Amino acid sequence: MNDFNPFRGVLPAITTPFDTDGQVDHAALATHAQHLVGAGCRGVIPLGSLGEGATLAPEEKSAVVRTLIQAVGHEVPVIVAVAAPSTRQAVDFAREAEKQGAQGLMILPPYVYPGDPVEMERHVGAVFEATPLPGMLYNNPIAYHTDFLPEAIVRLARAHPNLCAVKESSGDIRRIHALRACMGDALALLVGVDDLLVESVQAGATGWVAGLANAFPTESVRLFDLARAGPGASLDTLYHWFLPLLRLDAEVHFVQAIKLAQASVGLGSERVRPPRLPLAGDERAAVLALIEAARIGGGA
Fold first, then answer.
1. Catalytic: which of 61, 144, 167, 259?
2. Rounded CA separation 153/167 (Å)
3. Separation CA 214–CA 171 (nearest Å)
4. Residue 158 belongs to what domain range?
5. Which of 10-34 are b and which e, b meaning 16 or more Cβ less than 10 Å from the residue's Cβ?
6. What is the pLDDT of residue 300?
7. Which one is catalytic: 61, 138, 144, 259?
8. Cβ(202)–Cβ(219) under 8 Å?
9. Dmax over Cα atoms in the chain, in whole Å?
10. pTM of the predicted model over 0.85
11. Buried b or exposed e, range 159-197, using 16+ CB within 10 angstroms
12. What pLDDT sits at residue 5?
């Protein structure tokens, strides 16, 4: 495996801020990344689902990576999500991310086409081969309809030395146990589902690709640290407080909900890029009520 492994601690899947004209707000992006790092996050992951990467043009993606490298790349790794409809596009963007200075990649299955297991292994394998950067395989069968089972991940890891980590978002804690049994410490295992953070860490996860960290970075870092330290009253109290918010990461409108949470605590705006629209009506009121209840209850 690659000697440099940036996949540890709390790694926010950073949101992409937009200005009133719908363009990427690079000043806000840099400021937000610096705030996350200042709160104790160990890196940032742009351009994933939460970062609305599928709505950005290639030149916009490259500009986002440049902004983050300049803003925080001297302090923490910038781990770039690579997702595209075709293998060629994914390979090209992986190389572009390396050129811009990315310190790692998070590799997703292709958008739109949920191929068979052989096709999907070849797709992600081509991206791992495209650069020497350490990579994290993102397994999210619920969202992407492609499931990398533990035996497939073992095959990929043996074939690609720069496969250093797995973001496990199947919701099945047994996957973490299975991967640890097969690979030991050779692969870093990261939580990809916010409301399974504690259970996943107890199963052996050593990192967290976090969504709600965009709005509550200090609380997220504290929760992760307490989970790593083991069971206790402080962990139970904080997790009980945080769980209603963490569950927002599993909703259909999770991007809008997390951006609304950011706006509510002064860490961003709720602007999203169409076809997404900001939350409205009863759904917006329910999210705001959760945030207000959290404020009243106190956090970390």
1. 167
2. 11
3. 21
4. 9-229
5. bbbbbbbbbeeeeebbbebbbebbe
6. 52
7. 138
8. no
9. 51
10. yes
11. ebebbbbbbbbbeebebbebbbeebeeebbbbbbbbbbb
12. 77
Residue the block writes with tokens 């109290």: 237
Residues in the chain with pLDDT values less than 70 = 1-4, 299-300
Could you tell me if residue 249 is inside a domain?
no
For residue 283, being part of any structural domain is answered with: no
Give every CB contact of residue 190 below 8 A, 6+ residues apart in sequence: 7, 11, 136, 165, 166, 167, 168, 205, 206, 207, 208, 209
The Cβ of residue 129 has, within 10 Å, a number of other Cβ atoms equal to 13
CA distance 60 to 197: 31
pLDDT of residue 297: 74
Looking at residue 120, its amino acid is M
Is 3 part of a structural domain of the chain? no
Domain with residue 59: its CATH number is: 3.20.20.70
Provide the number of structural domains found in the chain: 1
The whole-number pLDDT of residue 296 equals 80
Decide if 260 is inside a domain. Answer: no
Active site residue 138: yes
List C-alpha distances in Å: 186 to 147, 165, 172, 206: 21, 8, 20, 12
- What pLDDT score does 2 carry? 41
- What pLDDT shows up at residue 94? 98
Cα-Cα-Cα-Cα dihedral sign, residues 288, 290, 291, 293: positive
Catalytic-residue membership of 61 = no
Nearest to 14 by CA among 74, 59, 94, 69: 69
Pairing of β 135-139 and β 104-107: parallel
The Cα–Cα gap between 296 and 113 comes to 45
